[in-house]
């Protein structure tokens, strides 16, 4: 089983799906000749031609809208938003159109589109190359939203997204692209959408998260084990629909829950996860539900100390985990 | 010169390849749409239905365009005033009445959407929404699929001149122009975006914008059925030849208020409306048929009686049809919703 980077796993998923099904194609800015600004689509144009790895005009609403139209016809488009920060011009197409096509047509028309968008900071991207816009789309019924942390999941979930009959937003973490390296099978496997995954079994505290912060949580858990703090870690993987059963099971395991995400705290995914736990098992808890999130500022500044202040890291996560354990 | 003389002996519709039967059929759909629209206004005023959005004054261009397309294979992305278009594309008065009464059997949306939000996969009428012009990139997506899959259909999309100011119009046009896609964009310039007159909406002509996207833009009298038919037919031929999109700006006038929630006398005069009523394309087409000896007032009376009867039956059917079950509100968010779980 080859070791590969998270970004390679995403590329491999697209390549395999394009080989499997000729209606699958990728469109976006710089995805063709250049192979993507991050190299995510590198080699696809050479293999599949410039129609199936299509360089588009700089217009996100058209990238999403044209993909939606093609999907309604029966194609399986993967629309790339170069940065999730630039996704907002396409929001009307995603929320008013893609999310509602099945519902508004009473199940007559469908929209099996995938929209890929890199999220997250820590790359000196400043306000507009660092955002985590999950909460803008989260809570829009009709959309599925995936945010993988591992390279294995990135491949399996993207392949599941391409085959899904409904619109899926695939939030890939750009800091994970090169940071996360692991064994990824070359065979045709799928990771099901809507199913969370226990990354680490533990007995003292439960950490629920998705995407990059899990990297810090796993490191912190390793170190906290030496302090006899045992952390149970759940990777949501899919943030819509949330895996309620897995969330409740993980929370029950320890009775102490910390929810972590880089998106800012107010109105984030963590608020919903917290509400689910509070609704179902408040009296089984041994501590208040805690959240560690990005601060409620408009976006991440580029200046290094400011970026460091905004970003989560192993030490911040470890401290929050220890505080909860000691509660 | 001789051949020209002999051509002139043919009537215009024959020159365009339309039979007497076809032009009478066109007229029939125009009258049907007009009657439907008038009936829906009355139903709303009588409190039988909640809302109606009108297309009176726009039926001529809508029906003419539909006849110029291939109604067996093309994909249609109409906007909310296109009753004439969707009727000509195969939707029935009963279908429209089920929609306006918001009944379960409504083929457009099962009673979920406002009237005028068309959709029928069977008829290749693509489901639409209320935020205007989002359908333009969708039409481009269908045309892209045609090119990628080497299929000989075109997509046809309509919108108002107000909508032509949205980003999605420009983004869609540009994308279609870059890839020379088989899409026909028809702006139904009805002179008003609700209350805002065209001179406050446009600094130039909608048709001229096509120049910037690298394809032809044609302004046409939307009250002239045969001219609209001609330009849409030519646009379709260009598209099928692989020569790319065409933008058509059909000039017309919205004779009715924007919707049943609108009082148009707050922003325009009765005189202005009456002046435009004289230019009504439906009336003009009727006169054309009579002048060419293929239509009579007797036939007109028979047609109106027949359509009125059909309308009455459709109205009764729509009125008496069951509503969706309240809990069906929860169905069809995702695939498989509502299926019986094993």
Write down the domain tally of chain A: 2
Number of helices of chain A: 13
What's the CATH topology name of chain B? Rossmann fold
Residues in helix, % of chain A: 25-40%
Question: How many structural domains of chain B?
Answer: 1
Number of helical segments with 4 or more residues of chain B: 13
* Low-confidence runs of at least 5 consecutive residues of chain B: 1-5
Order of helices and strands of chain B: HHHHEHHHEHEEEHEHEHHH
The helix-and-strand class of chain A reads alpha/beta
Low-confidence stretches of chain A: none
CATH class of chain B: Alpha Beta
Major sheet: arrangement of strands of chain A: 3-2-4-5-7-6-12
Most extensive chain-chain interface: A-B, 43 and 43 residues
Rounded Rg of chain A: 19 Å
The secondary-structure class of chain B comes to alpha/beta
Number of strands of chain B: 7
In the CATH classification, which architecture of chain B applies? 3-Layer(aba) Sandwich
Describe the global form of chain B.
globular
Question: Which sheet architecture does the biggest sheet of chain A show?
Answer: 7 strands, mixed
Organism (chain A): Paenibacillus selenitireducens
InterPro entries (chain A): THDP-binding (IPR029061), Transketo_C/PFOR_II (IPR009014), Transketolase-like_Pyr-bd (IPR005475), Transketolase_C (IPR033248)
Protein name (chain A): Alpha-ketoacid dehydrogenase subunit beta
GO molecular function, one term (chain A): oxidoreductase activity
């Amino acid at each position: 089983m080859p070791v590969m980077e998270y970004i390679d796993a995403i590329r491999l998923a697209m390549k395999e799906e394009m080989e499997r099904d000729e209606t699958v194609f990728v469109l976006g800015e710089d995805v063709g000749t250049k192979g993507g600004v991050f190299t995510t689509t590198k080699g696809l144009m050479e293999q599949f031609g410039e129609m199936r790895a299509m360089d588009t005009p700089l217009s996100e609403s058209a990238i999403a809208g044209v993909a939606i139209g093609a999907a309604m016809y029966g194609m399986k488009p993967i629309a790339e938003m170069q940065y999730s920060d630039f996704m907002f011009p396409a929001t009307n197409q995603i929320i008013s159109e893609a999310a509602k096509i099945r519902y508004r047509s009473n199940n007559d028309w469908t929209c099996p589109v995938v929209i890929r968008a890199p999220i997250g900071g820590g790359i000196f991207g400043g306000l507009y190359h660092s955002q985590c816009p999950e909460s803008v789309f989260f809570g829009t019924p009709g959309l599925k939203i995936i945010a993988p942390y591992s390279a294995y999941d990135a491949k399996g979930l993207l392949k599941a997204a391409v085959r899904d009959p409904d619109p899926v937003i695939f939030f890939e973490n750009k800091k994970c692209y090169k940071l996360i390296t692991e064994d990824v099978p070359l065979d045709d496997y799928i990771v099901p959408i809507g199913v969370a995954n226990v990354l680490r079994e533990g007995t003292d505290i439960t950490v629920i998260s998705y995407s990059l912060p899990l990297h810090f949580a796993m490191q912190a858990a390793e170190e906290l084990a030496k302090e006899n703090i045992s952390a149970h870690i759940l990777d949501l993987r899919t943030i819509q629909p949330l895996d309620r059963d897995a969330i409740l099971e993980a929370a029950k395991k320890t009775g102490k829950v910390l929810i972590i995400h880089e998106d800012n705290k107010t109105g984030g995914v963590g608020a919903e996860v917290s509400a689910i736990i509070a609704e179902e098992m408040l009296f089984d808890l041994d501590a208040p539900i805690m959240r560690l999130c990005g601060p409620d500022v408009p976006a991440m500044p580029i200046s290094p100390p400011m970026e460091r202040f905004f970003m989560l890291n192993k030490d911040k996560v470890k401290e929050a985990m220890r505080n909860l354990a000691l509660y | 010169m001789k051949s020209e003389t002999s051509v002139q002996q043919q009537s215009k519709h024959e020159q365009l390849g339309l039979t007497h039967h076809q032009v009478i059929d066109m007229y029939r759909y125009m009258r049907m749409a007009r009657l439907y629209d008038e009936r829906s206004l009355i139903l709303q005023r009588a409190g039988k239905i909640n809302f109606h959005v009108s297309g009176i004054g726009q039926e001529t261009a809508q029906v003419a365009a539909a006849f110029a397309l291939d109604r067996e294979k093309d994909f249609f992305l109409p906007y909310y005033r296109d009753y004439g278009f969707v009727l000509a594309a195969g939707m029935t008065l009963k279908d429209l009445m089920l929609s306006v009464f918001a009944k379960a059997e409504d083929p457009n949306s099962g009673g979920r959407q406002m009237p005028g939000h068309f959709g029928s996969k069977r008829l290749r009428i693509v489901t639409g929404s209320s935020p205007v012009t989002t359908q333009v990139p969708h039409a481009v997506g269908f045309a892209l699929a045609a090119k990628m899959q080497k299929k000989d259909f075109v997509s046809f999309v309509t919108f108002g001149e107000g909508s032509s100011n949205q980003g999605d119009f420009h983004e869609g046009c540009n994308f279609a122009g870059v890839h020379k896609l088989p899409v026909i964009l028809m702006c139904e310039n009805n002179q008003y975006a609700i209350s805002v007159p065209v001179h406050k909406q446009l600094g130039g002509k909608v048709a001229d914008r096509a120049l910037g996207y690298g394809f032809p833009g044609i302004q046409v009298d939307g009250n002239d059925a045969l001219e609209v038919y001609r330009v849409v037919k030519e646009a379709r031929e260009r598209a099928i030849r692989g020569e790319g999109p065409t933008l058509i700006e059909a000039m017309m006038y919205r004779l009715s208020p924007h919707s049943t929630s609108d009082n148009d006398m707050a922003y325009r005069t009765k005189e202005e409306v009456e002046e435009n009523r004289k230019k009504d394309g439906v009336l003009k087409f009727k006169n054309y048929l009579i002048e060419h000896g293929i239509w009579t007032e007797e036939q007109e009376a028979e047609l109106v009686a027949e359509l009125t009867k059909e309308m009455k039956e459709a109205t009764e059917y729509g009125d008496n049809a069951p509503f969706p079950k309240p809990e069906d509100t929860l169905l069809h968010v995702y695939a498989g919703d509502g299926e019986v779980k094993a």
